[in-house]
C-alpha cells in the first residue's frame, strides 16, 4: 500500500530550497545547532571502543526484523494482546488517522496530550483530530514551539531547530495564554519554565495520551519511548487511555536487543551517553498507568519499501537524525526544503520510497545530495544512504532529454576515436570563448544554458590547447 | 614497476598538466609509466546520475583496457572510488583490476613505499580532502603526509576540512544554489588560512573551488597535489 500523509514534497527540492537559502537568520541558526550536536555526538561516540561492532550489530538485528517481519508482527500482536493491549492495523495514513480519531471519540474526550512522535507527524494526525474537533496538544518543548508557531517541524529530533531563542520568546509571547510577558526573557531556563507551566495544566486534565514508539519488542509486546524532558513520561502514565501509532519496522525480536539500541540511539541523536527518560510499557498494568492501551501498527508504504532489495535498508532507521546533523546540504537548507516530515539524507531515501517516486515532487529528493558520504559514516545502523540515493536515481523517472544525452555520451566514450574526436570538438567549441576572454585570462564568467547553472556561482576554465593524449602521442 | 596511468576524461581534456605531473613524478622515482590509449571514461557520471545501463559498457571497457597491468594509477579520488567501490557490484569481472587501481597517494605510500618524493614547493598551501577520497577510499592522511615531506612547503590546516565543497558531479548543475552556498563557506574557510594554494586530489572538486575563488577575485589558486609533488628536482 502506497504511503500518504506529510511525506509528499509539493514542489521540487531546488525550488523548495531557494527561499530557505535566502534566509540568513535560518542559515545561522542551522549552522550553530547542527555543529553543536555534531560535535557532541562525535565526542560521545569516540569514547565507545566497540562503536563499529555496535553499528554492525544494530544493522544485523534490524535486517533480521525485516527478513522476518510478518512472523514478528504476529508475535508482537499476540504478546501485546495477551498483556491487555488492543492492536489495530492501518494500511496508510488515512486509515491510521480514522482509527485514532474513532478511539478518541469513544472516550468522549475533546483534548489529547501528545508525546513527540514522527509516525503521527507522518500521518498528519493533528490535522485529522482537529477536523473532528479534538485538540491535540504537543508536549515536547520543541514540538510545542512549532505547533504554537503554526509551523511544521524541520528536523526529526529538534523540530524547532530553525528558530533561535529570541524567536522562540516571540512565539511564546504571541501564542501562550497566561504568560507574563514582562517576566519572560529569552533565557532558555525562563522559556522552559513558561512551557512547563503551560503544559502542567494539560497533563493533569488530559484523559487521552497519544504517542509513537522508538521500539516495539516482539517477544514481550513491550513498547519503548526514549526522551529527554519527562513530558513524554507524563503523557504515557497520567491519562486513562493511551494510543500509540507505531511503524511496522520499529520491531525488535527480543527484549535483550534493546541493549544494542539503547547505546546507539542516545549517542547518535542527542549526543548523550544515555537519554534521561526511557519509558517501557507492556499492555495494561492494573491500577498503574493507562487502563486502556491501544497500539496502531502502521504500514503506509513500508511493505512497498521492503520489496526493494537495495532500498529496504532505509527501514533500519531509528530516527536518530545523526545524518541530518552531518549533512552539508541539510545544514544550508534546513528541513522544510525536503517537503516531508522526514528531511535530510534519510528523508531523501525514505519519503520517495514510502510514497513511490511519482508522488508529488518526491522524485527530486534523491538528487538533493552531493554523495559526500558523511551520512553513511554517522548512521548507527549503517544505512548506506549514498548507495540508496544512486539506486533511486537509477530506478526513478529521469528528466526529459537527459537520458538521450547520457546515452550519447556513453556511445562516444565507448570508442577511442569517437572519444578523441569529441575532446577535439570540445576544445574547438570553446575557441570563440577563448577569444572573448583573452583580456581577462582564460576564465569564463557566463556560459549559455544549461551550463549557466555552473557559472551562476563560479567561473569556468577553458580547455588547454592540447589534450593529455595528444601530448602523450607526441612525446 | 610498470604502472598504467588512467588519466580520467576530465583531466584528459581540461587538466593535462596533472597527467604530465604524474608521469614526471613516477618516472623520476624510477618507474615506467604506460598510457593505454584505448582508455576513455570510468562511467562515474552515468552511474551516479542514475544511468547504470549507460555506465556498464564503460565499466567493461576499463576492465579490458587495464586487465594486463599490475598497477593502475589515477590522479582522481572519485574516479578511483568509482572503479574500486562501485565496479565490483556493477560487473563482478571488474573486481580483479579494481583491486589493483590506486589513487596516487595510495600508489606512492602503500605500493611503492615512498613518502618523500623529493619535491620542493616554496609556498603556503592548505589541503582539502575530497569526499570520495576521504570516505570511500579512506585515504586518511596519505596526501598530507606526502605534502609534509615537500621541501619549503608551508602546510596549513583547513578549518572544516572534511566538509564537502558542494561539487557533487551533476549536483553542481541540478542544485546550483545549494552547491553555491556550500562553495561559499568552503571558499571562506580557505581564505581564512591565508594560503597561496588550495590543493586536493580531485580536479573536478578543484575546478568548482577554483571557480568560486576566481569569481570572488581571490588570489588563492587551486592546484592538484600531483603538481606539487612533481615540482622541484626530485630526490638527489
Assign a percent range to the helix content of chain B.
40-55%
Q: What is the molecular shape of chain B?
A: globular
Number of strands of chain B: 8
**What is the approximate shape of chain A?**
globular
Strand content of chain A: 5-15%
Please report the number of helical segments of chain A. Answer: 23
Q: What is the straight-line distance between the termini of chain A?
A: 63 Å
> What value does the average pLDDT of chain B take?
96
Instruction: Kindly report the oligomeric state of this protein.
Output: heterodimer
User: For the CA atoms, what is the radius of gyration of chain A?
Assistant: 26 Å
The largest beta-sheet of chain A arranges its strands as 1-10-7-4-2-3
Strand order of the largest sheet of chain B: 2-1-3-4
Structural class of chain B: alpha/beta
Classify the beta-strand content of chain B into a percent band.
5-15%
Number of helices in the DSSP assignment of chain B = 13
Give the low-confidence spans of chain A: none
Radius of gyration of chain B: 17 Å
* Main sheet: strands, sense, barrel of chain B: 4 strands, parallel
Major sheet of chain A: size, sense and barrel closure?
Answer: 6 strands, parallel
Write a concise keyword list for the protein shown above.
heterodimer, A: 475 residues, six-stranded parallel sheet, four-stranded mixed sheet, 23 helices, 12 strands, globular, B: 236 residues, alpha/beta, four-stranded parallel sheet, 13 helices
Structural features, described:
The complex is a heterodimer of chains A (475) and B (236). Chain A has helices at 13-22, 24-46, 51-67, 69-82, 93-107, 118-123, 125-131, 141-148, 165-175, 188-205, 231-237, 258-269, 302-306, 322-326, 328-333, 344-355, 374-378, 385-395, 402-413, 416-429, 431-437, 452-455, 468-474, and strands at residues 86-90, 111-114, 135-138, 208-211, 215-217, 222-227, 241-247, 251-252, 277-282, 292-298, 443-444, 460-461. Chain A is of the alpha/beta class and 475 residues long. In chain A, the strands form three sheets. In chain A, strands 1-10-7-4-2-3 form a six-stranded parallel beta sheet, sandwiched between helices. In chain A, helix 3 crosses helix 12 (258-269). The longest helix of chain A is centred in the N-terminal third of the chain and has 23 residues, at 24-46. Chain A is globular, with a radius of gyration of 26 Å. With 236 residues, chain B is an alpha/beta fold. Chain B is 50% helix and 12% strand. Chain B is built from 13 helices and eight strands. The two termini of chain B are 20 Å apart.
